[in-house]
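Illustration: LIM domain only protein 3.
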Amino acid sequence: MEHGQDKLTGSGGGGGSGQAANVCGECGNAILDRYYLEALDKKWHEDCLKCACCDCRLGEVGSTCFEKANLVLCRRDYLRLFGNNGSCASCNKIIPAFELVMRVQGNVYHLECFGCAECSCRFCVGDRFFFWNNLILCESDYEDRLLLRSELSGDGGGHATNENTIVDHNSSALRAATAAGMPHPVIVPNHHQLTCGSMANEVSEPMEMAMGGGGMTTAMSHRHEQHKYITN
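Result:
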């Protein structure tokens, strides 16, 4: 099977008894219904073009379907089985594209990996944390590091900056860090949904392409009305 991306166009079905009936790519029977779907270079009964995983009717869930490993899939199941969007900045494991994640200054984290690098405490939405030297720190551990740095250097200074949301704080160590240009505390945002970056253009603007680790096909499925019913 050749894999690529096709934007499909279609015309009406058989124009009369002298023309062959459209044949369904799934069941192999003639398509006698008023409407049919055209996708992946085949014509389908509307009830026959289904996702191999969730069995949803693809004509009802969108205009795009995917084919890989001899499976016809909806977008959600394709991403669940084959999609990814890079690796977690904490554990370095691949993050499936359907998972909820946390994003901090370009880094992406599994929800279970998003915690203080020092004490491993987990954060909830609305908690405060610091992002310093590519590490996520809770307020307590960040302040401990500042105090240690201040004791060792005598100036408590630093040059790291952070453009995230600034919130009020009363700690003398944190006030000194702010004056010295150190990172401000950041409010934990809501969880984000990953989008598969490698597929961002496939849905809206089909083009010939290949994906690493094996080919795939994504096609725009079109619904057509047959000009006349086919009778034997």
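Reading the tokens back as a structure: The chain is about 15% helix and 25% strand.
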